[in-house]
Design a protein that fits this description.
By secondary structure, the protein is an all-alpha fold. The chain is 77% helix and 0% strand. The chain has eleven helices and no strands. Helix 3 crosses helix 5 and helix 10 runs antiparallel to helix 11. The N and C termini lie far apart (42 Å). The relative contact order is 0.16.
Length: 216
């Protein structure tokens, strides 16, 4: 059995880049929401968490409408000969939207567990908000941030519906491991399907194992 390994490299490239971007966005937005005490907080959290409960195909469809060639954003991008649909960049965008709620929820949860008296004491001592964030809030939220990274990475690695809608299934360009499994099953090539299933199980086990050891 000869297997083209490009789905593995494409999946890792898409998942790692998506995780890095989600890591930065998740921490910044979660901290802003944590500090916001206004009446719109519940509404904002709901909007940010919607991709968590929506079917991935709907998320992919909405991305197509938003970034397609006929959309305003798509027409603006086309002026610079840029297109994200049916490219691995499109897969990155789909993975970020699918994985962001996991990173956001895990990070916000640990920010909310920080003793506010500790932060107030730092402010009384004259510490700036940036210093409080870097030297108190961020270290205390480490376990939640780590959980968010692990959860969002594994979710992105196994993402199928939204990625297929946005990036398509182009061998050597956008075909990820979940797509390789699906289309191998469709073609009756079960040996290849098992190969990719074992690869995904290995990465899932490895990420959870690392999380359990790093969070102790």
């Amino acid at each position: 059995m000869t297997i083209n390994l490009s789905p593995l490299w494409i999946s890792l490239k898409v998942s790692l880049l998506s995780t890095i971007i989600t890591f930065v966005l998740g921490i910044i937005i979660a901290y802003q929401v944590y500090q916001y005490k206004g009446k719109w907080r519940s509404f904002i959290e709901t909007i940010l968490l919607i991709p968590l409960v929506l079917p991935p195909t709907i998320v992919g469809f909405l991305i197509l409408i938003l970034l397609g060639k006929n959309s305003i954003i798509g027409q603006i991008l086309s002026r610079w000969n840029l297109n994200v649909i049916f490219t691995w960049y499109g897969a990155v965008i789909a993975c970020i939207i699918i994985g962001f709620p996991l990173m956001f929820r895990a990070t916000l949860g640990t920010f909310e567990q920080i003793d506010s008296l500790l932060l107030d004491a730092a402010r009384i001592e004259g510490a700036s908000e940036i210093a409080i964030f870097y030297y108190i809030s961020l270290p205390l939220a480490f376990r939640g941030i780590l959980a968010g990274i692990i959860l969002s990475f594994t979710r992105m690695l196994g993402e199928f519906g939204a990625t297929l809608m946005v990036a398509g299934n182009i061998p050597n360009k956008t075909q990820t491991i979940p797509m390789a499994i699906y289309f191998a099953v469709q073609a009756g090539e079960f040996e290849e399907s098992w190969f990719w299933v074992i690869i995904l199980l290995f990465f899932s086990f490895l990420t959870i194992f690392l999380f359990n050891n790093l969070s102790r």
